[in-house]
C-alpha cells in the first residue's frame, strides 16, 4: 500500500468518505476500541480521533482512514483492519493541535503503514 493511501478511504468506501462518523463505534479485529469523537483532514491526512473510554486510560487515539475496512451506517460501526494492541502502540495522541502537526501525522502514517497486511475475511 502506498504511504499516501493510509490517509484515504479505500475505493470501495468512497461513498462514506463524506459521511459524518462522529459517535460511531470503532471495532478492531479483536474487539471494540471506542467511538469516533471527531474526524479531520489536515494537510491531506484524513483521520479519525477515537475516544477509547477506559480501555486506554481514558485517552484518545488517532486512526488514519486508510485502515478502515468497513463502515456500517445502520449499525453506526466502523471496523479497522488492525488489532487493539496495534492501535494502542501507535504514536501517542496528546493534544488536538497534533491533528494539524504534519510531523506527528507523518509519524502516525509511517506506523500504520508499517503494520503487517491482513487478509480480509471472505463472505
TrEMBL record:
GO biological process terms, alphabetically, are:
photosynthesis, light reaction
Cited InterPro entries = Bac_photo_RC_H_C (IPR014747), PRC_barrel-like_sf (IPR011033)
TM ranges are none
Gene Ontology CC, one term: plasma membrane light-harvesting complex
Return the protein name. PRC-barrel domain containing protein
Amino acid at each position: 500500500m502506498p504511504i499516501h493511501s493510509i490517509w484515504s478511504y479505500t475505493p470501495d468506501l468512497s461513498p462514506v468518505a463524506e459521511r459524518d462518523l462522529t459517535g460511531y463505534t470503532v471495532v478492531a479485529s479483536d474487539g471494540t476500541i471506542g467511538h469516533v469523537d471527531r474526524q479531520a483532514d489536515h494537510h491531506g491526512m484524513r483521520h479519525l480521533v477515537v475516544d477509547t473510554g477506559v480501555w486506554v486510560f481514558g485517552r484518545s487515539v488517532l486512526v488514519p482512514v486508510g485502515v478502515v475496512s468497513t463502515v456500517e451506517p445502520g449499525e453506526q460501526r466502523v471496523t479497522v483492519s488492525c488489532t487493539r494492541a496495534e492501535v494502542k502502540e501507535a504514536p501517542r495522541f496528546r493534544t488536538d493541535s497534533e491533528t494539524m502537526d504534519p510531523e506527528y501525522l507523518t509519524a502516525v502514517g509511517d506506523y500504520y503503514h508499517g503494520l503487517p497486511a491482513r487478509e480480509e475475511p471472505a463472505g
